[in-house]
Amino acid sequence: MKKILRILAATLALTMPALAQADFDTKAKFAILMDEDSGTVIFQKDADLPMEPASMAKLMTIAVVFNEIRSGRLSMTDMFFVSEHAWRTGGAASGGSTMFAELNSQISVEDLIRSVVIQSGNDAAIVLAEGIAGSETSFAAMMNELGEDIGLADSHFTNPTGLPDPDMYVTARDLADLARYLIQQFPEYYHYFSEPDMEWNGIKQPNRNSLVELGIGVDGLKTGHTEAAGYGSVISTDEGGRRLVAVLHGLTSMAQRTEEGRKLITWGARAFERVAAYPEGAVVAYANVYGGSSASVGLVGKGEVALYLPRGSRRCLNAQVNYTGPLRPPVMQGDQIAELQVFCDDQLVQTAPLYAAESVGEGDIVRKATDALKQLALGWL
Questions:
Q1: How many angstroms separate the CA atoms of 13 and 32, rounded?
Q2: Is 172 helix (H, G, I), strand (E, B) or coil?
Q3: How far apart are CA 220 and CA 222, in angstroms?
Q4: Is 283:357 a contact under the CB 8 Å cutoff?
Q5: 3-state DSSP call for residue 3?
Q6: Does pLDDT of 223 surpass 90?
């Protein structure tokens, strides 16, 4: 049974300002701004509505490639063949973003990665997909499998390029979570996203993310555009002492995309402060343990549970803890068994996993009998 523990959080209410979005808006149809480390949602606008990903879908392509490298099934020096399909669909003749890869040539995985990230090369993305999985269709299955593992519940991918397909969709929230996954899981490769340009076949092309060159700390990640969807971008910066991830989509021009992205990421870096909700080791709540040596187990965060919240806002926080219970022993210290959800004006603004603060073994016969009577008489409280 799903259990919900309401936390009155009087201490929180006295020390934390509320999440307030009234002082900021964006021309983007879809937007979200997150703290990269904690996942705190700082701003959102239709962040859970489906949208066409355009070339921002290539972030999932790159996630699959990085996973293949980490698993040892792929290396940066592997050479992949440029098929006629990749050349025609994603090359110069297609009229889209391209690496200008030559038909029947071979290109290293590292150069293909750089092209996808910097130039948004459709030909490079297809070459990677065919080299890894044999076809775009098979590669798309890998994209969706990894997306499920990451927790992208509202996205579906059908190709590695982001070229229009009615069956392909994402949400701004899923793209932000995908960006966080790439940043956290593959820091050794993150530098590719901030490279200013790339030259291939004698053609030098700048990084399509124009924010990289503005000197405001932006160092990634991806832009996208189709006629139907408009202009979008996935942005990250560590300006101001913490890393932020932003997604905007549905804008009308490259200039508008740059300006709206700059405004959102700058506002996020300057208008918020870090507030420690619970210090490391502090018990957030207690979960019931049926038939255990103790009737309950303390729940703690992994280190400090912290939020970034607006400066000088009115106060409105409340929180709850969700877990499936009652728990049954043995419960081991460090087991993830619950989730803290923090709300402001009934809007979910933060989730954080909670872990068992100590181990709870099997209880004696008296404890088991007492718990059985409690469950029979009252249900489990």
A1: 25
A2: helix
A3: 6
A4: yes
A5: strand
A6: yes
Cα–Cα distance, 113 to 135 (Å, whole number): 17
Residue labelled with tokens 């996942």: 39
Single out the catalytic residue among 83, 97, 115, 120. Answer: 120
284-314: per-residue pLDDT in tens? Answer: 889 888 878 888 899 998 888 877 666 665 4
**Which of 29, 45, 58, 222 is an active site residue?**
58
Asked if 3 is an active-site residue, the reply is no
Residue of 38, 55, 83, 313 marked active site: 55
Q: How far apart are CA 42 and CA 242, in angstroms?
A: 13
Residue 2 amino acid letter? K
Instruction: Strand 41-45: give its sheet, edge to edge.
Output: 41-45, 30-35, 244-251, 230-237, 218-226
CA distance 82 to 10: 62
Whether the CB-CB separation of 317 and 342 falls below 8 Å is answered with: yes
Give Cα separations from 126 to 60, 89, 138, 151 (angstroms). 13, 8, 12, 25
Pairing of strands 30-35, 2-7: unpaired
Active site residue 374: no
Q: Spell out a b/e string for 347-358, using b for 16 or more CB atoms within 10 Å of the CB, else e.
A: eebbebebbbbe
Buried/exposed code over 267-290 (b: 16+ C-beta within 10 A; e: otherwise) = bbbebbeeeebbeeeeebbbbbbb
d(CA 31, CA 27): 9
Under 8 Å CB-to-CB from 277, ≥6 apart: which residues?
Answer: 12, 16, 305, 306, 307, 342
Catalytic annotation present for 138: no
pLDDT value for 312: 60
Provide the residue type at 29 as one letter. Answer: K
